[in-house]
Amino acid sequence: MRKKVIAGNWKMNMLPNEAIEYIDKLSKLVKDTTNEVVLCVPYIDLFYALLAAQNTNIKIGAQNMHFEEKGAYTGEISPQMLKSINVEYVIIGHSERRQYYNETDETVNKKVNAAHRVGLKPIVCVGETLEERENGKTAEIITEQTKLALEGLDEEQVAKTIIAYEPIWAIGTGKTATSEDANNSIKEIRKEIARNYGQETANRVIIQYGGSVKAENAKELFSMSDIDGGLVGGASLKVDEFNKIIHFEQ
Ligand code: PGA
Fold it and tell me: What is the secondary structure of 168-184 as a DSSP string?
């Protein structure tokens, strides 16, 4: 049985003092859950968030990183830097980074490999635009993105990579894919992984859904056969709402 991983993506929100207050509150509410709880926070919050999350079952992640170990890359953060302060997860290839910051399948692939080299768990985002969906290209786009992101990894590394299926038209728009649609897309992604790395590996990969996940739709989405939790943006900014999503079974 795959674990459900519920990850918050705070994007460019929350100051360090707000992060500490949030984690203090959330950690008390999620003590009992067997779902993996992750918060992907802005760089500036990482250190404070890690301290606040110590001795709790909340894991901390970053939202991006460079693929190089070090060097003349003004303003960038390396995988080693994240690892050195005990960050566990890192989002790679979020559609906002692909759209606004020239992230490509190639840089995503370099980052995924770099994350595994230092033992960070990547959460790799894939997803189609509305136009691609309307042209019947969803499966083609998301399987290609998945294939390119994972190139160069061995089976064990693939099994430890989280994929977040996030249809771009559903992010921050209030529009969610239907649970059947999301489940079917995720099945396509799993099939692609099975083709390249074997069914056993594919069965181990955690594949989340993301895009306007809220307390009201989390149960329906996360109860589907192939949806292993979610990457949650807007709704992860409120402790009570995110707590309800984490406890979606209730
Ligand atoms: P949203 O964002 O939940 O606000 O739609 C999801 C994401 O971008 O990861």
Answer: GGGTTSS----HHHHHH
